[in-house]
């Protein structure tokens, strides 16, 4: 069974990571997240937030800065949001550089860092995080993870 949890914190200070984890744990119950994505406004520097969050959180965690954070419950400016996903899967991350100059090479570089197969898990899914370059791309500002049950969302967008 796949379980999704979302959380949003508007407060500041060093306790943000722990408060975010408490909200996620309450929804996940005993399920261990395989993947967590954290979206943080510039008020919450990732270089401070992520190490504190990751020190006591299982699974792969990725973080991005954003200029507007939301969950399915609404949006808050200057906040931190997260989506955690638990289930029978594994998460891996790869980074590609030079997207603007050579998109194909950047994507190939990121994919080369990922395993081609994972024993016992026959399917692969990719979530790409890119900085939008054009107006058409900026219109689609959110991302959504869908499950068979109710939809849970969290995300952030970069403003101008």
Structure explained in plain terms:
By secondary structure, this protein is an alpha+beta fold. The protein has a domain at 3-90 and 136-156: 2-Layer Sandwich (60s Ribosomal Protein L30, Chain: A). It has four helices and seven strands, in the order E-H-E-H-E-E-E-E-H-H-E. The strands form two sheets. Strands 1-6-2-3 form a four-stranded mixed sheet, covered by helices on one side. Strands 5-4-7 form a three-stranded antiparallel sheet, with no helix packed on it. Strand 4 (69-71) and strand 5 (74-76) form a beta hairpin. The longest helix has 13 residues, at 16-28. The radius of gyration is 16 Å and the shape is globular.
Task: Give a quick account of the main beta sheet: strands, pairing sense, barrel closure.
Answer: 4 strands, mixed
On the 0 to 100 scale, the average pLDDT is 78
What is the CATH-assigned architecture of one domain? 2-Layer Sandwich
* Strand tally: 7
Q: Treating each run of at least 4 consecutive H or I residues as one helix, how many helices?
A: 4
CATH fold category name of one domain: 60s Ribosomal Protein L30, Chain: A
Structural class: alpha+beta
Gyration radius, rounded: 16 Å
Inertia-based shape: globular
Lateral arrangement of strands in the main beta sheet = 1-6-2-3
Low confidence ranges: 134-153
Name of the CATH first level of one domain: Alpha Beta
- The termini sit apart by 39 Å
What's the helix-strand series? EHEHEEEEHHE
Helix content: 10-25%
- Percent strand: 15-25%
């Amino acid at each position: 069974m796949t379980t999704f949890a979302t959380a949003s914190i508007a407060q500041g200070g060093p306790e943000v990571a722990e408060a975010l984890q408490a909200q996620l744990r309450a929804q996940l119950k005993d399920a261990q997240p395989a993947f967590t994505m954290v979206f943080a406004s510039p008020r919450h520097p990732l270089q401070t937030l992520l190490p504190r969050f990751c020190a006591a959180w299982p699974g792969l965690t990725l973080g991005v800065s954003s200029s507007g954070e939301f969950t399915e419950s609404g949006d808050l400016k200057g906040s931190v949001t997260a989506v955690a996903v638990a289930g029978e899967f594994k998460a891996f991350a790869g980074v590609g550089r030079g997207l603007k100059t050579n998109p194909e090479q950047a994507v190939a570089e990121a994919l080369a860092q990922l395993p081609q197969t994972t024993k016992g898990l026959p399917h692969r899914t990719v979530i790409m995080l890119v900085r939008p370059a054009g107006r058409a791309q900026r219109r689609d500002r959110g991302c959504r993870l869908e499950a068979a049950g109710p939809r849970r969302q969290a995300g952030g967008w970069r403003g101008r």
